[in-house]
Amino acid sequence: MFAGINSKNERRIISNIYEKGRVFYEKNDFENAKKTYSKINEIIINQDLKNRFGYNIDQIYINLGISYLASNEIQKSCESFRKVGDETNFKVRNYLKKFCK
Question: pTM of the entire structure?
Answer without folding.
Answer: 0.90
